[in-house]
Amino acid sequence: MSNSTQWLRNSLCAATLIGSMLATTAQAEQVSMESASPNSLLGMIPQAMARHWADNDIELQLSLNQTLTKSLLKVAAGKLDLAVAPPLAYNAMTKNAGPYKKMGDKASALAANVRSLFGLPGGTYHAITWADDNIKDWPEAVGKRVYIGPPAGAANTQVIALATKGGLIEGTYDPIKAPWGAATQSFQDGQFDVYVGNTSIGSQSLAELSLSHDIRLLSLADKSQTPDPSLGLQLVVIPPNTYPGQVNKSPVISWQTVMMMVAHKDFSEETAYKLTKTFLENRAIVAKSNSMLSQLSDIDPFAGVNAPLHPGAVRYYQEAGIAIPARLLAQ
User: Fold this and answer.
1) In angstroms, how far is the first alpha carbon of the chain from the final one?
2) Closest CA to 136 of 233, 44, 249, 4
3) Residue 149 class from Cβ within 10 Å (0-12 exposed, 13-18 middle, 19+ buried)?
4) Signal peptide span per the entry (predicted)?
5) What local confidence, expressed as pLDDT, does residue 152 receive?
6) Residue 252 sits in the same domain as residue 137
7) How far apart are CA 225 and CA 137, in angstroms?
8) What is the full DSSP assignment across 224-292?
């Protein structure tokens, strides 16, 4: 059993036990948080950070497998302390659009309550073809079937933008939509030619896929092909030999989703300060605890973040001498 698999198994504990097992002082403050699935980066990071927050008298009550657009709404309404939130969802809320369209002006009014603490690395887009196919780069997928994510998801916009930046023009290929959970098997069954999966670098599922059949990852031409800031993405490099059956001899340049930790504007300033300080000052330790978390130590704390910073977070960044983008300072 790999170290990553063992680490994940050990992490799948009841969320309410995290705080009770780790908080060691009677004055520990209970903080509720929601995030994604336990074996995703967005689920693994808060689990790994829990003991460090506990050392600073913050008892984390973590609920996983949540729909993050709904978690963001709970924070905005004051019904949840913290949530991992997609920047695109926050942007939609401010515009009364997307999943919040039916709420009308109430959505944008609630968005005004949201404050950010720091950014978090999400999954990396892996554009995969079989090594024995004749698709060696993005332009060669013209006329092919390309998986672009689940129906009506933010991934559609992101994958289309990635393909376009790589030289595959929208309208010149057949975009296929299907649930994430069925995509890998559908690719193996030949239902599309390019599978664009979103997972952590070094994912066990992609390692197993490459063992069944050699794969090639499609790459952007160079590091100048950065994503539009509004997409909630950042540039990332996937090394050669990351997967057993990967045939790429050079580093693969792709994009990684970026999320943000958010709280209500009235959330305790002191607690927001301690959460931010503890996260930034212990992320290198957490990154070394598991290879799948290695990118945690390098991420720009403001990458993808588009909600104004909480005063407690601002206090930490100012004390640490970290320059804050003017766009993130609440008016």
Assistant:
1) 51
2) 249
3) buried
4) 1-28
5) 65
6) yes
7) 15
8) T-PPPGGGSEEEEEE-TTSSTTB---SPEEEEEEEEEEEEETTS-HHHHHHHHHHHHHHHHHHHTT-GG
What is the reported pTM? 0.77
Q: What is the pLDDT of residue 311?
A: 98
Domain end position, chosen among 222, 257, 292: 257
Domain ranges, residue 212: 122-257
Q: CA–CA separation, 190 vs 19, rounded Å? A: 45
> Over the stretch 186-210, which tens digit does the pLDDT of each residue have?
999 999 999 999 888 888 889 999 9
Q: Clarify whether residues 134 and 253 are in a common domain.
A: yes
Burial (Cβ within 10 Å: 0-12, 13-18, ≥19) of residue 119: buried
Question: Does pLDDT of 70 surpass 70?
Answer: yes
Mean pLDDT of the chain: 89
CB within 8 Å of 18: residues ≥ 6 apart: 47, 50, 60, 61, 62
Amino acid 185 reads Q
The helix, strand and coil proportions of the chain, stated in percent and rounded to the nearest 5, come to 40, 20, 40
More confidently predicted of 173 and 181:
173
Rounded distance, CA 144 to CA 172, Å?
8
76 Rama class: left (phi>0) / alpha (psi -120 to 50) / beta: alpha
In terms of Cα–Cα distance, which of 260, 259, 263 is closest to 81? 263
pLDDT band at 1 (very low <50, low <70, confident <90, very high): low
Structure tokens at 30: 């209970």
Who's near 33: CB < 8 A, 6+ residues apart?
46, 60, 61, 62, 63, 80, 81, 82, 83, 84
